[in-house]
Amino acid sequence: MGFNCGIVGLPNVGKSTLFNALTKSNKAKAANYPFATIKPNVGRVAVPDKRLQQLSKIGKSEKTIPTYIDFIDIAGLVKGASTGGGLGNKFLAHIREVDAIAHVVRCFEDTNITHVSSKINPIDDIDTISTELKLADLEILQNILDSLKKKSNNGEKEIKTQIELISDLQERLNKNETIKNLELNKESSFIYKSLNLITTKPMLYICNVDNKSVINGNYFSNQVKEKAKKELSKTVIVSAAIESQIAEYNNENDKLELLKDIGLTETTLNKVISAGYDILNLITYFTCGPKETRAWTINANTRAPKAAGKIHTDFEKGFIRAETISYNDFEDLGGETACREAGRLRQEGKEYIVKDGDVIHFLFNN
After folding, report:
1. What CA–CA distance (Å, rounded) separates 296 from 211?
2. Res. 111: pLDDT tops 80
3. pLDDT tens for residues 135-192?
4. Residue ranges of the alpha helices (H) in 196-251?
5. Cα(253)–Cα(256) distance, rounded to whole angstroms?
6. Which of 61, 19, 56 is nearest to 36 (CA)?
7. How would you classify residue 60: left for phi > 0, otherwise alpha for psi between -120 and 50, otherwise beta?
């Protein structure tokens, strides 16, 4: 499994059109009025990786298994969503379950497509959504705090720690400060993660531009890019209209030709997944053999036993060593046997940090 990404934004910014293009489906209803999406739509897509296909070819594998990403198209949020406005905070609850948030921002003018505020101002739009996410978190924190205070009379240290942390988070949010990537001790860090707050999730801004701006962006997308830089977030420039056209083609070569004609080198799916891996600090390693070649998604800086545990918990518990080949060596030399003979296969122990593109065979005790 790769990761799951919630797609949010104001109504009529192109969320559902983009979702359909990304997932090559027509699950999400795209319409020129608010709240076309009533229930969250979920689409699973394989993470494109040319390395996987090449490894499978070299290994003469019977199966090729990619890693996947789930996209969740969440109803358009409006001002007041945190207190039940629009479709209310039950849809905000869906955002709590995702690994990362893709915020689709309208960066084009079109009098035929209505805008909830009757003007195009991407920064105001972002602030509207950000405020609702923050208010939703403040409500959750207050509910937890009220519950903890009722239990605080017994003087438990753990409860006191929770109250102090939650009160600090509330104060920061009320001052409009970020609560991402806080430096906390081990105990507080565990509590912080368990809260699963929306405003702590990595954010990717998807600038939905007009067709002529899809390569270099425009005035609106440049505003979003500057804001993202300050937040240490990322931006991706797309045209949902173009992507919906590309999605109509079944033949991959036809899609590539259309992209080439427009002046693009990769699809929105590739852009979004690449940016998602960056903001979540993820990498991919591979296993390769006659039965199957498979991609595995892990966090960067993961040690070999933990990476082995991604395949099966027994691999982690009984880890002995990891026979490791870099993807480039595997491809250049033509497989495991040639790499072993050339001395390019490394025997790595428990402290080895798995690198992106490693091809690994784990040895373990049953």
Report:
1. 35
2. no
3. 889 989 999 999 888 877 666 778 888 999 999 999 999 998 989 888 899 889 999 9
4. 219-231, 240-246
5. 5
6. 19
7. left
